[in-house]
Design goal:
The protein is mainly α. Helix content is 56%, strand content 4%. The protein has 16 helices and 6 strands. It has a two-stranded parallel ribbon.
Length: 309
């Protein structure tokens, strides 16, 4: 199975290989920006250009943040430009950047006393994944494989269906169970989804030494994704996983193209997307992965972003 194969390739020790993706964008013009991002930006009485300039200036003037990005990237065996691209993309299209790194620490501290849990309609995530449908996931060897298994079972057996007389929303696993405030919610410098953090917790514990996360402790999960230092580790782990997945599954090296890693950071599900690319290329006609609107910006601004490092 896909997840079993991929688990052999997680982490910086991934064997070299894969066809390097050419530099730059495959599309001449920027792909369409989703309406939700446009509406969010208009509601904030700002523009994408203004948001880009704000996050670029944050990076350019905060040497402490750039130092943290470089050291974290080095620990995960990736070029720091991939982390720069993810931060720029998130703060251009999804949220507005704070003016200083310290503001992210202050915001994280503000949530420290809150108490909440991951649940849907009164059923905790622990009770939900304790259902017999998820029993096959227990044998998986790492957090990514375990939670990916659970997410796949949600999609196949629960999403938009009635099970045992109870109806479940036709929505993503992460939106239904892992966002107690409102759907689509991500937090902090890296704008990381709680489910993504749970998937990556084994890698982050191994490489960075942070405590493993537990879905039964939602506060601890939110602390990890909001604290800038820990969030950077999860950002790097996410990018590392995408690079490894594309090498192992699709036979391409996306580490040569920050626009592609930024795209995957934005859309997620790198395993499934790598498998889809491999399937498309199995007929003998080779195609490269393509950037979306978010990754397109990163490649378009690449010279400027590299100058920050």
């Amino acid at each position: 199975m896909l997840v079993i194969v991929l688990s052999l390739f997680q982490g910086p020790a991934m064997a070299a290989g894969g066809r390097p993706v050419p530099e730059g964008n495959r599309f001449q013009e920027q792909p369409d920006i989703p309406g939700a991002s446009t509406r969010r930006t208009k509601a904030g009485r700002t523009s994408f250009d203004a948001k880009y300039e704000k996050v670029r200036n944050l990076l350019a003037t905060d040497r402490q943040l750039l130092g943290k990005i470089r050291s974290t990237a080095r620990a995960y065996g990736i070029d720091p430009i991939h982390m720069i691209g993810a931060i720029v993309g998130e703060h251009t299209y999804n949220v507005d950047a704070y003016d200083r790194l310290q503001s992210y620490y202050v915001k994280a501290a503000a949530y420290a006393g809150d108490s909440f849990r991951f649940a849907y309609d009164g059923e905790s995530i622990a009770d939900f994944i304790g259902r017999p449908q998820f029993s096959s996931c227990a044998a998986k060897k790492n957090s990514y494989a375990v939670w990916n298994c659970r997410e796949n079972i949600w999609d196949r057996q629960f999403r938009g269906k009635s099970v045992g007389g109870r109806s479940f929303p036709n929505n993503r696993f992460s939106a239904v169970f892992f966002q107690p405030f409102y759907a689509g919610q991500t937090f902090g410098l890296g704008q990381i989804n709680p489910l993504t953090a749970l998937m990556l917790t084994d890698m982050v514990a191994r490489v960075s030494g942070y405590d493993r996360l537990d879905a039964n402790d939602a506060n601890d999960v939110y602390k990890a994704i909001m604290d800038p230092d820990i969030s950077l580790a999860y950002m790097a782990a996410s990018i590392r996983h995408s690079i490894d997945a594309y090498k192992a599954i699709a036979g391409v090296d996306i580490s040569t193209n920050p626009g592609i890693t930024a795209t995957l950071y934005n859309v997620g599900n790198s395993d499934q997307r790598a498998a889809a690319l491999a399937a498309r290329n199995s007929n003998g006609e080779f195609r490269w992965p393509e950037e979306n609107y978010y990754g397109w910006l990163v490649n378009d601004k690449l010279a400027e972003l590299r100058s920050l490092l």
